[in-house]
Amino acid sequence: MADDVRVRRIAAMRGCDRILDGVRPKSLRERLAELSEAAGPELMPDYYGDGLVGELEDRVAGLLGAEAAVFFPTGTMAQQVAIRYGADLTGRSTVALHPLGHQEMHERRAYADLTGLRSVHPTAAPRNPTAAEIAALPEPVGTVVLELPMRDAGFVLPTWAELTEVCEAARGSGARVHLDGARLWESAPYLGHSLAEIAGRADSTYVSFYKTLGGLSGAALTGTTALAAYARLWRHRYGGQLFQQWPAVLSALVGLDRELPRVPEYVRHARTIAAALAQLPGAVVFPQPPHTHQFRLWLPHPAALLNDAGLLLAEEEKVWFTGGWRDTEIPGHAVTEVSVQSPALEWGTDEVIDTGLRLLDRVQN
Questions:
Q1: How many CB atoms lie within 10 A of CB 173?
Q2: Looking at the domain assignment, is residue 310 inside a domain?
Q3: What is the mean pLDDT of residues 32-47?
Q4: For residue 252, what is the domain's CATH number?
């Protein structure tokens, strides 16, 4: 049943003329055509990490102001290597993580099961830890992980001063700082500093190529040349030394060329969209204004009704509003994540409100 709904949802989104949340799903033929156009007639595939992979690694290292970057097939693998490096380098088998962080919520605690590390939680508040909380840790840690932005807290970011202070506190305790920057691309406008300046606060940074940039898959880990050498060794041991990765790498390069320059525009327009959504009956938007181009929206209706209403709106009016609603601990209230990207730039305040009211009419009926 879930697969049937997913197929129906993709078909509905592909048929929409207007999309507020997310982007129109592409078919295999469309993705292949996009890659073919970007490749040109003379570009050759990579072999075990050479050629095009090296080009992407150099590009990302330059963007983040790092000595080196290493391409990984997944961010989960990249992050485990970064945390393992911190433990080996410092001799400390404990890592400071947030309970809402990606390692705890979405990586099945691989740092513990695969590497044998332990975690401590500097805070349970829905934000990154502060310098005082790092200084108050009950035991030495090898790595302090900061997620920018913190997705499961609502895509929230610290201020530049807070980020600087917590990084200094971590280093003062003898720990490395690792940035879980899967969505680092959209963090720069709020922090008011370049990607290189943000990554420069830390010892290592992970970025994703399919989040925000629209790549097929893949990630990069940046840092020193020593980290890069270590990362290549452990990437192979973890099974990440693939024979050819050119589809993912080429799509990442396309994303850097086409999407990355537009991210500040997405972030700016997210504030307009969020303010409009907040005017719907019973709506709550967080954070307000958004820190990035993504934020959370609550409505006082069950998730099933909202998902059904959104699907009907798409099929009947060819307009995609939002989807992916899930029930919360508050009875009768549901939450979703809104992602403002290229299609949403066409939406103004009045259209958001009018379409939202039509969605709610379907919920009530």
A1: 15
A2: yes
A3: 92
A4: 3.40.640.10
